[in-house]
Amino acid sequence: MIRIAVANQKGGVGKTTTAINLATALAAIGWKVLLADLDPQGNASTGLGIAQSARERSSYDVLMGETSLVESVIPTKVPRLDLLPATVDLSGAEVELVGLEGRTHRLARAFDAAPPGRWDICLMDCPPSLGLLTVNALVSAQHLVVPLQCEFFALEGLSQLLQTVERIRVAYNPSLSILGVALTMFDRRNNLSQAVAEDVRACLGATVFETVVPRNVRLSEAPSHGLPALIYDLRCPGSEAYVRLAREMIQRLNLVDAKAA
Q1: What is the pTM of this model?
Q2: Taking a C-beta distance cutoff of 8 angstroms, is the pair 18, 179 a contact?
Q3: H/E segment holding residue 81
Q4: Residue 69: which of 135, 3, 144, 143 has the closest Cα?
Q5: What is d(CA 54, CA 1) in angstroms, rounded to the nearest whole number?
Q6: pLDDT at 75
Q7: Which backbone phi and psi does 215 adopt, to 5 degrees?
Q8: 180 and 208 in contact (C-beta within 8 Å)?
Q9: Are 229 and 238 in contact (CB under 8 A)?
C-alpha cells in the first residue's frame, strides 16, 4: 500500500479538500483507497458524509493501540473508498502520545499490520500543525503532498515544513519524499495569486504540480452536503482541476505501469 501524507502546518490551505477529492478521483479509476483522517476537527470525515454517531472507532483508537486499522475503518458513499474517521478524542492525543513507547511510529505499525492488498493507496489528512499526529503520518508515509494556498502568508510556513520533513528523513524515515506541492485557491483576478505561484515555482521548480486548483464556490459547498466535490459537481472548475491533479500524481507515482503489471 502506497502511503501519502497530505500536510501543511498552516490551516485553511485546502488540505482536507485536496485529500478528499484526490482519494475520490483515485477510487473512481478503480483503486482501493483508504483516507485516514488525522485532524481532531474531523473535517475529512464530515466531508464524506460520516456523522459523529457513525464514528464508533477512530484514528485515535488506532494510535492508542486500542483497535486495529481494519476494525476502525468504515466504508463511504464512494465505491472503493474507505475512511479511518477522526473524533474529538484526537485533540488529546498529542499529550497522550508523549508517554507511549514508539510514539512516532504508532501509525506506521498499524499500517504494517493491515492485510496485504486490502488497499492500494492511503491518503492521510494531517492537522494544521507539526505535532505528533503529523509526525506519525510523515513517519508512516512514503510520499508527501503539500497543498499551498496562493497567498503571501502561506509561503511563510513552507520552509519550516520542509525542514521538518528533512528531520523526519534523517531520524526516522529516509524513504520519505515530497511527491509535489499543489497550488490551491488560485484566483486569476488577483495579481498576488500569480506572483505567489511564480515565486513557488522559481524556488521549488518541478516539485510543484503543473495543475493549479482555482478558488471555487462549489468546492466550498460540497462538504456541507457530505460529498466530495467530484460527486457534488464533477463539471465545476475545482473538480476538473482535482481530476487533472490526480492524473498528474498518478504519473509521478508510475501507478499506471504498476497496475498493469
Answers
A1: 0.92
A2: no
A3: strand 81-84
A4: 3
A5: 26
A6: 96
A7: -70, 125
A8: yes
A9: yes
Name the stretches of the chain with pLDDT < 70: 255-261
Q: Nine-digit cell at 66?
A: 486500542
Q: What is the distance between the alpha carbons of residues 110 and 71, in angstroms, rounded to a whole number?
A: 11
Q: Hey, what's the cell of 125?
A: 489528512
Block residue for cell numbers 508527501: 144
Separation in Å, CA 126 to CA 18, 65, 69, 197, 233: 11, 19, 17, 23, 25
Nearest alpha carbon to residue 75 among 32, 38, 40: 32
DSSP code of 215? Answer: P
Distance CA 117, CA 107 (A): 18
Identity of residue 114: A
Residue 66: φ, ψ to 5°: -85, -25
3-state class of 236 per DSSP?
coil
The cell numbers describing 31, all together, are 483503486
Q: Give the alpha-carbon dihedral of 16, 14, 155, 34, to 10 degrees.
A: 30
- How far apart are alpha carbons 229 and 261 in whole angstroms? 31
Tell me the pLDDT tens digit for each residue of 134-148.
999 999 999 999 999
Angle between helices 237-253 and 15-28 (to 10 degrees): 70
Task: Give residue 109's pLDDT.
Answer: 95
Q: What is the CATH number of the domain that holds 32?
A: 3.40.50.300
pLDDT on residue 188: 79
Length of the chain: 261
10, 154 Cβ separation under 8 angstroms? yes
Query: Which residue in the block uniquely carries the three cell numbers 483515485?
Result: 26
Q: How many domains does the chain have?
A: 1
Range of 217's domain? 2-260
